[in-house]
Write a structure and sequence with these properties.
With 140 residues, the chain is mainly alpha-helical. The protein is built from six helices and two strands. It has helices at 7-22, 30-44, 54-68, 84-100, 110-122, 127-135; strands at residues 26-28, 71-73. Helix 2 (30-44) crosses helix 3 (54-68), helix 3 packs antiparallel against helix 4 (84-100) and helix 3 (54-68) crosses helix 6 (127-135). The longest helix has 17 residues, at 84-100. The protein is globular and about 45 Å long. The protein starts with 6 loop residues before the first helix and ends in a 5-residue tail after the last helix. The relative contact order is 0.19.
């Protein structure tokens, strides 16, 4: 599934949405995005699955966006949001789950999303722990 998944398009969509919503100018470092893709590939192999589900992929992509911080602010940006990588990481993960996760996906409330972003910014997480968080958004 990882090879079928165009998470980069989802990532770009959310970067552009943040620029519009917050009236910011953002820069995406493509070298870091390439590193991010490589790291997702490495950490997702830990499951030993031929086709990990959308939640696992979302967790790993979200984690590495948050960890490697490929997004920065342009010098002429009118506004800044210091947790921009965490915000985009979470939204990319949620979007992947929504698009590829099927009918069982349940979007978390705004309060949970804000708390999740804060936790991603200030606390330790792992790729597998992040994947578990996304797994919990699927109803049995």
């Amino acid at each position: 599934m990882f090879s079928e998944l165009n998470w980069r398009a989802v990532f770009q969509e959310h970067v552009e949405a943040c620029e519009r919503a917050f009236n910011m100018s953002l820069i995406v470092d493509l070298d870091i995005v390439n590193e991010l893709e490589s790291m997702v590939g490495r950490t997702i192999l830990g499951y030993g699955l031929a086709k990990p589900n959308a939640a696992k992929l979302a967790g790993h992509v979200s984690f590495w966006i948050r960890k490697l911080k490929p997004i920065s602010f342009a010098a002429d940006s009118r506004h800044k949001y210091l947790a921009i990588n965490e915000l985009v990481g979470l939204w990319v993960g949620l979007s992947l789950c929504k698009r590829f996760g099927g009918q069982g996906f349940k979007m978390p409330s705004e309060r949970i999303r804000v708390d999740w972003i804060s936790s991603m910014r200030a606390h330790s997480h792992s790729p597998h722990g992040s994947a578990l968080s996304f797994e919990m958004l699927f109803t049995p």
